């Protein structure tokens, strides 16, 4: 999970008049940390519960094809990590962190509630040589079967390895359809699609106010120089993973037992609990996260709230534009590819590609030789950060679809979990591994052997590749249904969690230490922008593994398995190559960092 709260904040209010020793404590920390911990836990409960459901909700309820569904997912997560740049600024200048957190919690909870109203399931249909046929879905034992309805006949749809499709009657082929001549889609209500996109837009907007500012409030609990700060943020970080662990089990369970609305409804409840913990705090948070002491602030806040709500239709428009994007024509080259990008893609890539060299040119002109070298090291690591999160964030898209289609979800033959529930492995392994990793780095540091930040980044890249290659190896033991054992997927998440702990905890801290002081806020913005670009890229990578579906189900599981494995293998080789490159660059990067660790 891309969660990197940091103890290093570029601007912190001075509360040095408070003596922490005179206050009641919670595990040796300010007692307010318990409320912040619980608030973040419930907020992440809501977010990760919703995220676990999103891709399958798009493919199985609205019956979008893989390309559209993973594109929407990538766009949503990109906006989620872009909006905190604006939300953090507005809180600093106008609202204060506390009001921003409460407003963000309300908007996010309303977004989750709106997602509960998905309307009727889309009705699939197929087009064969230009003629439309209805598609019916029927249960056959523990699986669903798709049929083309041709008058009084119902013909089972079976995809072939070469991309052609057979129509079967009583198990025998009666018609063969050439590759490309069979197209499937669904009749879905434009109204409920609009409702769904509005819900996602509200979640994206509210997250921008909540995510950066709850961490800011945690930072305010400690005096400047208080050595408990890092440990406090570590405790806070565990709240994130505890919330996501339980939500990724419970929200998908309710979605299966009661319906999609129940899964999203539980996410909304979690978000409302988070709001209530801040709203009804018994005055325990008085003096923390307060707005600037300017008389016009009270009036300005209402304009900000109204402006934030006006952003929702803007995001809705971006989602619609994203859904309507088309693949570039064959042979159009890089210019054709860039031209085919939706507006969101053009904005993200354009901003990132301009900001990286632009800031480096400025730092070369305005900074000293040492400052330029430190900024160059920071920008290099930011670029590699994009690569890591692009691959890691396949969890909510291609890996969830892989779990649904090509994974045997049985747990020792006793019971089965659902595909969205497989995402809980990451949170579970983070909780288990984090203390071990902390002790490992501490022990190595005592002996002068702790890897440098570039080396940790390189290890993370190779690690994320190792997780995918483990799953590819496990696929060689796939059963006759072309399904891989659940524990191979769990092994991937174990390795990915280790890789995450090599890169996630040091990211923001590294940026604040390497940046020129007068642009540290801008550099933090570029760091979050890099994660946002990675989320969008992750959706694009997942689109490479798109397979033909009818009514949300693949037509050939062998083709599906091979498609995923080809993509996982390809990105693994790239990650290993880039990881080795970063390890080779670690010596000059460490030199340019001038002692920053």
What does this structure look like?
The chain is an alpha+beta fold and 597 residues long. The chain has three domains: 1-121 and 189-326, Up-down Bundle (Growth Hormone, Chain: A), CATH 1.20.1250; 123-187, no CATH class; 357-417 and 450-485 and 495-597, MFS general substrate transporter like domains (Growth Hormone, Chain: A). 64% of the residues lie in helices and 11% in strands. It contains 18 helices and 15 strands. The strands form five sheets. It has a seven-stranded antiparallel beta sheet with strand order 8-7-6-5-4-3-9, with no helix packed on it. Strands 1-2 form a two-stranded antiparallel ribbon. Strands 10-13 form a two-stranded parallel ribbon. Helix 1 runs antiparallel to helix 7. The chain is globular and about 75 Å long. The chain starts with 24 loop residues before the first strand and ends in a 5-residue tail after the last helix. The model is unreliable at 6-22 (pLDDT under 50).
């Amino acid at each position: 999970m891309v969660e990197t709260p940091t103890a290093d904040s570029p601007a912190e209010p001075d509360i040095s008049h408070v003596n922490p020793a005179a206050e009641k404590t919670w595990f040796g920390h300010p007692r307010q940390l318990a409320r912040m911990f619980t608030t973040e836990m419930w907020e992440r409960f809501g977010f990760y519960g919703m995220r676990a459901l999103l891709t399958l909700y798009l493919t199985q309820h609205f019956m979008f094809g893989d390309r559209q569904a993973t594109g929407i997912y990538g766009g949503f997560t990109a906006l989620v990590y872009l909006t905190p740049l604006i939300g953090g600024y507005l809180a600093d200048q106008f609202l204060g962190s506390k009001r921003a957190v409460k407003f963000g919690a309300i908007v996010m909870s309303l977004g989750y509630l709106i997602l509960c109203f998905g309307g009727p399931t889309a009705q699939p249909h197929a087009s064969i040589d230009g003629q439309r046929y209805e598609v019916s879905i029927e249960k056959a034992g523990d699986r669903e079967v798709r049929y083309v309805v041709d008058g009084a006949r119902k013909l089972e749809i079976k995809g072939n390895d070469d991309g052609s499709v057979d129509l079967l009657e009583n198990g025998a082929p009666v018609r063969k359809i050439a590759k490309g001549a069979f197209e499937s889609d669904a009749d879905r209500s434009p109204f409920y699609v609009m409702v769904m996109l509005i819900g996602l837009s509200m979640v994206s907007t509210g997250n921008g106010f909540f995510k950066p500012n709850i961490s800011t409030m945690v930072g305010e609990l400690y005096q400047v120089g208080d050595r408990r700060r890092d440990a406090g943020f570590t405790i806070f970080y565990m709240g994130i993973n505890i919330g996501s662990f339980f939500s990724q089990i419970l929200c998908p369970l309710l979605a299966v037992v009661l319906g999609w609305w129940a899964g999203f409804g539980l996410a909304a409840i979690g978000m409302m609990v988070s709001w209530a913990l801040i709203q009804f705090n018994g005055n325990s948070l008085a003096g923390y996260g307060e707005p600037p002491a300017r008389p016009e602030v009270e009036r300005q806040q209402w304009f900000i709230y109204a402006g934030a709500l006006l952003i929702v239709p803007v995001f809705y428009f971006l989602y619609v534009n994203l859904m309507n994007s088309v693949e570039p024509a064959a042979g159009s080259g890089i210019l054709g590819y860039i031209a085919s990008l939706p507006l969101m893609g053009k904005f993200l890539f354009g901003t990132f590609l301009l900001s990286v060299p632009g800031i480096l040119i400025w730092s070369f002109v305005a900074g000293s030789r040492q400052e330029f070298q430190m900024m160059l090291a920071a920008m290099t690591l930011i670029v590699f950060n994009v690569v890591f999160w692009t691959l890691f964030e396949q969890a909510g898209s291609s890996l969830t679809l892989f779990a649904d289609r090509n994974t045997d979800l049985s747990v020792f033959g006793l019971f089965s979990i659902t595909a969205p529930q497989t995402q809980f492995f990451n949170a579970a392994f983070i909780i288990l591994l984090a203390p071990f990793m902390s002790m490992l780095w501490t022990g190595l540091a005592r002996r002068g052997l702790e890897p440098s930040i570039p080396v940790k980044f390189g290890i993370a890249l190779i690690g994320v590749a190792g997780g995918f290659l483990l799953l590819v190896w496990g696929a060689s033991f796939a059963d006759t249904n072309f399904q891989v054992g659940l524990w191979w997927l769990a092994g991937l998440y174990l390795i990915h969690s280790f890789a995450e702990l090599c890169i996630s905890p040091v990211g923001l801290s590294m940026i604040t230490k390497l940046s020129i002081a007068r642009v540290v806020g801008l550099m933090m913005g570029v760091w979050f922008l890099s994660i946002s670009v990675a989320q969008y890229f992750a959706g694009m990578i997942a689109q490479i593994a798109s397979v033909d579906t009818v009514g949300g189900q693949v037509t050939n599981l062998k083709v599906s398995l091979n498609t995923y494995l080809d993509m996982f293998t390809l990105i693994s080789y790239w990650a290993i190559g880039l990881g080795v490159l970063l390890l080779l660059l670690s010596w000059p990067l460490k030199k340019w960092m001038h002692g920053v660790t």
